[in-house]
Structure prediction request, 292 residues.
Amino acid sequence: MNVLYCGNDKTEDGLLISILSLLKNAGESLHIYLLTMDLCVGEKVYFSISDTFADYADRLVKQAGPDNFVVLIDGTEPFYRELPIMNLDTRFTPYCMLRLFADEIPELPEKTLYLDNDVICRKSLGEFYHQDISAYEFAGVLDHYGRWFFRRNMLHFDYQNSGVLLMNLRKIRETGLLRRCRKLCMEKKMFMPDQSALNKLAVSKKASPRRFNEQRRLQSDTVLQHFTTSFRFFPWFHSMTVKPWEIEKVHRLLKLHEYDDLFDEYQRLLPEIRRSFPNEQKERNHPDFLFH
Prediction:
């Protein structure tokens, strides 16, 4: 099973929890690709996922099976080559658009499952991963809220969430989907730019059941739970964002204890991880590529 994550050093906690959940529940060998980059946008400086973290994650997954691996891939150069200039300063980090460069990464296999770092695997992924998508660019799940507001056909829900995408990179390269998405991000400012571009420009996408990207509340058949921002109406209307690594909030606000064994393992590994790269808080220079 080929799995792609994208992010920077701030996503490492989420990556660890998500990878641990895959080791526990995915049900087959894991080939994990971490696409990252250094980035400087005005006064904001972002650093890539560290080599040390990737090496630690690789050793961790190999303990579960010799065929497992974690590979770190630097996407800095292709990102700057097609800089999504209109969407660099949104409420989402620029790293949300890094997944749109998957077709530019030769190491990625033709069939690759993209996951956000706030996705937890709860059951075997075989049914979702091994479905036939030969005629489609990707398979995904409807966005819980966006499906109501963003759709090309008012009589048909078709707006998918980009946090779980089973990508057919062969088909994507044929249609130029991601290339066209990158061009749109360079030219037009959008809300949730990667997701908006994918839904606007996809020629062929396959809709999968909600259980493969549960964005609201845990259900008995949930396979992948995605900890997205949700809305609550009691005692007042408000948004709520709780991420898996915010364990106290998961317990207190979501009343969720389903993953306590996973969180225990995550917390058990933290001291070991910190010993692996002590004080790596980050005495780094600015990235070589700068955008002002």
About this structure: The CA atoms of residues 45 and 286 lie 7 Å apart. Residues 2-213+260-276 form a domain with the Spore Coat Polysaccharide Biosynthesis Protein SpsA; Chain A fold (CATH 3.90.550.10). The chain has ten helices and 13 strands.
